[in-house]
Write a structure and sequence with these properties.
Layout (H helix, E strand, L loop, with lengths): L1 H20 L4 H23 L5 H18 L1 H15 L9 H13 L2 H13 L3 H21 L2 H4 L1 H13 L1 H4 L5 H22 L16 H5 L4
Helix pairs in contact: 1-7, 1-9, 2-7, 2-11, 3-11, 5-7, 5-11, 6-7, 6-9
């Protein structure tokens, strides 16, 4: 239930943000996006500061980059997004779908609340953490929707898949997702947030999607520490 609420809140608040975008001048949208970019960089830095094992972080990022590049995740996403944009090209809110989708997905799925909340939901039937996360995500969805458009509402799908998967397989995954492992997953995810924020600030053009597999490697690597 908590996962569904989280996804629905992001969807609804993203739509509200898109509605607000229509009344905001373009120059303000750009400033809003850059402001969010700065906040994302700070959130990433705060998350990375909790690193306890830099070797795990480095190996995870390297293996993740190789995996993502081999699977051509960024390229495949762009192709899929282009197909959607071609079908709805008459609607300006559906421009830059990929940018909004990647930004929202990374922000909503990176963090201990997504993992811990999903485990609590699956193991204990306690949805309070995900409800709290939903409120925070809803506020961010409005801001992202007003600056990045409809790509934000598509992020509700990865939320269902990622958090829903952890919830459904909580009994199986719980032994492998101790506090130390979750912390390293968050650290790697936070590092990707810094890259995402730099992209939003037009400082870099990192293929963030190709680094996403890095978030899953700490789960494997930490079993040997």
């Amino acid at each position: 239930m908590g996962v569904i609420v989280n996804a629905v809140v992001v969807l609804i608040c993203g739509i509200i943000g898109i509605g607000l975008k229509a009344g905001i001048p373009e120059r303000f949208n750009e400033r809003i996006m850059h402001g969010i970019g700065l906040c994302v960089v700070v959130l990433g830095i705060v998350g990375v500061m909790t690193v306890e094992n830099t070797i795990v972080m480095i190996i995870s990022v390297l293996l993740g980059a190789i995996t993502g590049e081999a699977l051509r995740l960024e390229e495949r996403l762009k192709i899929s997004v282009q197909k959607i944009e071609e079908k709805v090209q008459h609607n300006k809110h559906f421009s830059n779908l990929g940018e909004g989708f990647i930004a929202a997905t990374m922000i909503f799925c990176v963090g201990s609340m997504a993992i811990v909340g999903s485990l609590e939901s699956g193991l204990l039937g306690n949805h309070s953490t995900l409800y709290a996360k939903s409120i925070l995500d809803g506020i961010v969805s409005v801001l992202l929707g007003s600056s990045l458009g409809a790509g934000v509402i598509l992020s509700s799908i990865p939320i269902l898949v990622y958090q829903g998967g952890i919830m459904l397989f909580a009994n199986t995954m719980a032994p492998y997702l101790g506090d130390a492992v979750i912390n390293e997953v968050v650290v790697v995810g936070s590092l990707l947030l810094i890259g995402l924020g730099l992209n939003m600030l037009d400082i870099t053009e990192l293929k963030i999607m190709n680094y996403v597999p890095a978030m899953f490697f700490p789960i494997i690597i930490m079993q040997f520490f």
